[in-house]
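Hi P.,

Sorry for the delay on this. The queue was packed all week, but I finally got your sequence through. Input first:
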Amino acid sequence: MPNFRGYCFPFVTLAPKTTEDLPQELGRIVNEEAAKFGLKYAMVVNTHNSIDEVVDTEEHLAELQVAASKCLQKTVEQTKKPFMIGGASVFPEEFSLKDGMGSGGITALVVEVENQKTAYVIIDGNNMVPGLREKIIGSLSSIGFGESEVFTTDTHAVSALITGGRGYHPVGEVMNHEVLIRYIIEAAKKAEATLETSKAGFLRFVVPQVRVIGEARLKSMTTLVDKGIQWAKKTLIPIFGLEGLFFILLLLLF
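Then the structure:
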């Protein structure tokens, strides 16, 4: 958990367990804990770096709160020192949207404090297969990065491009892991080469009247699709048989 002038960035993962959308109240809870330790603000980051079976993240809320509190306490106890930051991106030609790689490619952010180098790797994809995070961290450790973390952007650009299952491939499901890690190492080394003395700043502002698709709207859309399928079963099967049902399912999916 980096701490820049009282502004900290807790990274949350349950890997190798599923790390998907986290409870919204986690951000509030962590900020309340941060205030107890005299920190100005905590921006909680969901790493989205492991997905297997569907889990209820609400079940892990208490343990995440305990872990966050311990990390916050440790970060305020550390001596503040100058730091350097470097960044770089690579764009693998081997991997497409159908493979689970978004157009943003792979970005590495390297932070160095004294002799400790940390790599933060961001992959433009929708989550990752279990175990891949640990492989990546191990490879980064072997080239001198003492602490590292891997994130995905949770992009939906890769979604609904394949049939069956989730409708997309998480990072590493159909990608060659060795090739992927080779690109990650390349990005990390390029980022390391750009290291320079840096300063941190923080700005918080509110954008009013922004409309988003919330949980209620998503549920209503899902219900609409389900009702459409039920209607199709009742109406088309007597008229067109199974061929008609198959056709309407294709229309709904694509």
